[in-house]
Amino acid sequence: MAENNADHGYLLDNRQSEAGVRFGALGELFDPVTFRHVDQLGITSGMRCWEVGAGSPSVPLGLAERVGPAGAVVATDIDVSWTRAIDGGVVEVVRHDVAADPPPPGGFDLVHARLVLVHVTDRAEALRRMVQALRPGGWLLLEDADPGLQPLLCPDESGPEQRLANRLRSGFRDLMAARGADLAYGRTLPRLLREAGLEDVRADAYFPITSPACAVLEAATVRQIRPRLVAAGLATEEEIDRHLTNVATGRLDLATAPMISAWGRRP
Ligand SMILES: C[S@@+](CC[C@H](N)C(=O)[O-])C[C@H]1O[C@@H](n2cnc3c(N)ncnc32)[C@H](O)[C@@H]1O
Questions:
Q1: Does the predicted TM-score (pTM) go above 0.70?
Q2: d(Cα 20, Cα 82) in Å, to the nearest integer?
Q3: Per-residue pLDDT tens for 111-168?
Q4: What CATH topology corresponds to 19-149+180-208+257-265?
Q5: Closest residue to atom 16 of ligand 1, CA basis
Q6: What are the residues facing 111 on neighbouring strands?
Q7: Closest approach atom of ligand 1 to CA 99
């Protein structure tokens, strides 16, 4: 599988070593939420699933467990560095841009994308392609952050450590927005699913108030975007070092943006 060297506007490059750490933390924080929804939707033996922007193996493998050898899971991403090892058998890994490439053929019982669309500039087109890929009666489950609803890394801003943490988080959001991320996207998902013609649309939201995985995610994210934060004048090297030391103490209560899960069925 050839590497894709194009800059798609995605800020957190999967090829950097911190990406593996971030994926582990995202799985720990959000896999239970994702699979609660997947199981509620009745995804089971023999079904066909498309995992969009899979990033890491954890969601495709969890789906493969549910659909079994009679089913199929297509796991796509613009960067398959972390998923190519699980290609084969029930799981097919494909390098694919959800906003630009034709959807995989065959009609899916479930199309799922978690924390992907917020990063995609042409997210309307991506959504259209995902809806197109559903078989009649198939479910689209979209899970995306809404940092505008809960912008703080430390909701309990009780001292200078928390204030610095929140300031750096705000810098990160500026970088994401400058790359075309929509920071109020999550809340729009139910409406967008209805406007796309889906039925039985429902949505809920989840975010941890404190969790060791949030500290792991934060440290890896800040190390990954450090040069960009400094270059944009959003933080100094010294502030970033101080913040990473604060995070490492485990005494900051770190949250994430709310993750909105919205689902609907193709008539
Ligand atoms: C924050 S990660 C989330 C990964 C995984 N879905 C999860 O929740 O753990 C965003 C993923 O979206 C992928 N991505 C970004 N733009 C994409 C696009 N246009 N088409 C497909 N995948 C894309 C990235 O390569 C990355 O793997």
A1: yes
A2: 7
A3: 999 999 988 889 999 999 999 999 999 999 999 999 999 999 999 999 999 999 999 9
A4: Rossmann fold (3.40.50)
A5: 120
A6: 50, 140
A7: 19
